[in-house]
Amino acid sequence: MNRQNTEILTASDADLARAATLLAAGEIVAFPTETVYGLGADARSNAAVAKVYEAKGRPSFNPLIVHVANAATARRYVKWSDSAERLAIAFWPGPLTLVLPLRDGHGISPLVTAGLDTLAIRVPAHPAAHRLLELFDNPVAAPSANPSGRISPTSAAHVLAGLDGRIAAIVDDGACPVGLESTIVGLAGGGPELLRPGGLAEDRIESALGHRLSHRAESAALSAPGQLLSHYAPSAAVRLNAQSARPGEILLGFGDMACTLNLSNTGDLTEAAANLFDHLHRLDGQNRPIAVAPIPERGLGKAINDRLRRAAAPRPTRKTR
Ligand code: TXA
Ligand code: MG
């Protein structure tokens, strides 16, 4: 792909207007959300969405999430339901993606849905993302702004490390407060299904619904999202549930322990989620195997462990670039 100068923009209104102009011109622009940085494109344009797949090196069967400014706009693209209403009222704007049947005449590029008849959609809470969506006034398809399979970006520096020169611009507004991708709930089949654990803890969703979520078996569907086993992977090897570092390893800790970097000294899972990808990026720069302390399997710990299992999974050999 052609190299281009990546414009570095701030979250000022003038710069966000520039980002919106670039999106309208079919360019791809990275922007912060409360979860991770997204790589945005006009979701109605095949050409723009194709640029996202190309820049990320993403397998084109893996569909994208569409971002809109509010639930009223979401309802133009998807068939709404009582569960959708309940979850949108409880958690939008915020780190929750809903998968719903597409409406007729939706106008979304089939590249976004990878040909499925459902759409993953969310309303991000980050003020810069929200303002950009208002200014652009159209749906924005945005996967995480990292080369496919690599660690997700929670700062502009992470984005540029992977995609500098491959994208038109980036809006730099500091670190992402949640630090894990949105939780994805499927509402297109029978009852609500958890398709991807993420930045909104499952038990909070169950409280809002008043019942348990079912879980899609990992192998079940292609729509089983981004859930290629090796994902979020650093270049270095990753060993989980480590009580201490073995010779040569660096230790990513949790709670009160001696380690190279700590996800949260106080054992706070929200803080650990916010630090996870940044710490993996930093340790990865050291080119040594990474050992990771055990993380409790509750609240946001479930999503943290999901990402860690994928970071540690055996990887297909990949080309370096
Ligand atoms: O927090 C987030 O969700 C971030 C920010 C940028 O919003 N985005 C993100 O996108 O994580 P991405 O592309 O890395 O992950 C999108 C996930 C994939 O796992 C994909 O398979 C799933 O959403 N997905 C998209 N459309 C779907 C659909 N129609 N049915 C089921 N899963 C879908
Ligand atoms: Mg991703």
Automatic annotation (TrEMBL):
Record's Gene3D superfamilies? DHBP synthase (3.90.870.10), Threonylcarbamoyl-AMP synthase, C-terminal domain (3.40.50.11030)
Does the keyword Calcium belong to this entry?
no
Q: Which reaction does it catalyse?
A: L-threonine + hydrogencarbonate + ATP = L-threonylcarbamoyladenylate + diphosphate + H2O
Q: Where in the cell is it found?
A: Cytoplasm
Q: Which domain of life is it from?
A: Bacteria
| Keyword Transmembrane helix recorded | no
Domain named YrdC-like: residues: 13-200
Query: EC number(s) of the enzyme?
Result: 2.7.7.87
- Entry keyword set: ATP-binding, Cytoplasm, Nucleotide-binding, Nucleotidyltransferase, Transferase, tRNA processing
Q: Which GO terms describe its molecular function?
A: L-threonylcarbamoyladenylate synthase
UniProt cross-references to InterPro entries, sorted A to Z? DHBP_synth_RibB-like_a/b_dom, Sua5-like_dom, Sua5/YwlC_C, Sua5_C, T(6)A37_SUA5, TC-AMP_synthase_SUA5
Q: What class of enzyme is it?
A: transferase
Role of this protein: Required for the formation of a threonylcarbamoyl group on adenosine at position 37 (t(6)A37) in tRNAs that read codons beginning with adenine.
Which family does the record claim for this protein? Belongs to the SUA5 family.
Q: What is the official name of this protein in its record? A: Threonylcarbamoyl-AMP synthase
In its UniProt entry, the species of origin is given as Sedimentitalea xiamensis
Record lineage: Bacteria, Pseudomonadati, Pseudomonadota, Alphaproteobacteria, Rhodobacterales
